[in-house]
Amino acid sequence: MPLSEPIPGLPQVIYPTPSSSRDTETKVTVMKNGLKVASEKKFGQYCIAGVAINSGSRLESNYPSGLSHFLERSAFRSTAKFRNREHILEHLSGVGGTFDCQGSRDLIIYAVSVINEHLETAVELLGEAVLRPRLQQHEVKQTAARIAFELQDMAYDPERKTQLAEMIHAAAYGDQTLGRPKICPEQNLDKITPNLMFNFLKHNYRPENMVLAAVGVEHERLVDLAEKYFVERSPIWLEDPSLASEHPLPSPKQKAVYTGGLNAIEADLSNVSLGPTPLPNLAHFQLGFEVCSHLELDEFVIVCVMNMLMGGGGSFSAGGPGKGMFTRLFTSVLNRYHWINSCAAHNASYEDTGLFYIQSSAGPENLKSLVDVVINEFKELAYGPMFRDELARAKKQLISMLWLNLEVRPIVFEDIARQVLVTGFRRQPRQLIERIETVTEDDIKRVAIKMLTKKPTVCCLGDLRKLPPYDYIRGELGQ
Length: 479
Known about the structure:
Blueprint: E1 27-30, E2 36-40, E3 46-53, H1 67-73, H2 85-93, E4 98-103, E5 108-115, H3 119-131, H4 137-155, H5 161-173, H6 194-204, E6 210-215, H7 219-231, H8 236-239, E7 261-266, E8 283-291, H9 297-310, E9 312-314, H10 328-334, E10 340-349, E11 354-362, H11 367-383, H12 388-405, H13 409-423, H14 429-437, H15 441-452, E12 457-462, H16 470-476
Parallel strand pairs: 2-6, 7-12
Antiparallel strand pairs: 1-2, 3-5, 3-6, 4-5, 8-11, 8-12, 9-10, 10-11
């Protein structure tokens, strides 16, 4: 048979056409119960559908911390239709399907990927997992055991990335909203019950807080399935009110209030990595400031360029400019100070605030010098010279990263879901790229100077005998 003819029995292939634009339309429909349905066509034989919910640890003020972590780890278990996780896996195995659930401080996403023609299987499973989980007592105990293992594993992580992320958010926002822990504390493992979880679902998993999004599907078909599985069928906690008590009351969604401050934990990290090639004993230092939310688009784009400009990574990173070897924190820090183990910029963005910080580590004997180096990099960013080439490179890297990420179907899905959930529509990549290309040196300086007027957030972990006082850090920053 000639290769120019389709093989009998295989699905029809959908190819991109030469006239196709990289920016395709994202269609959005609001259902009668408030649920938003968003989709975008994309060539290929697989589609991905999922539900993004405006929920997370920032809403746990009336609940034990860690409840959202339990919900994330309890996803895709027994439901009104499926007996257990194995039943779900068996159901998906015939349609080439996979599933996943990821949570953050202000969002949780359930996603299912299947062959295009089995979209209904995906949407039905999403409806079951999101609105009709059974959350049986033995499943909650299994989740607690799984999280306990995760906590043990984190304790042996030499880089302590998860713990440091928790610490800097707590230092920046206190014990409310975004400062609440995303990871369940060990002391709360026995406090999370099915009743509490159903109560949280009842108050937060409401249709107006959700987006059903999909990539690679016909929008009208997705709307019909949303009507069938998310509108016509009720959540399990409404069908059986005894599952969710009236207490505690729902946690109001409060605006995150940045406080800044110091969060320092003295710890012996000398034995976190044993064996024939043990890692060095490290002290970790983070310095950050409040920046804009991702809804303030013009300034948010400037912060993203600033993040690429600073870059950084570990002392043994390799791979050329695509991995940031020409960024400031490589050229000015890691290539200059051999005793610094890692130094990298991070930008955590939310709908009401943002946090820009540098995470670094070195031997405890060099902690004071490390603090001075990081402070100097912030001051150089705001008041020092900037080369035209480094700004041009940062903008090109950001544009390249944007295009490359949007080649990945799950990232396109998540981008659609996040944007539609917060704004009701999706900005196309071209709009963002046009803004990136207009960022100037003056823009970077203006945002950096504004950032340094805020009270600093300082986070430290390890042997802290050489850590200078918080007031010293503020003084060196000119505050």
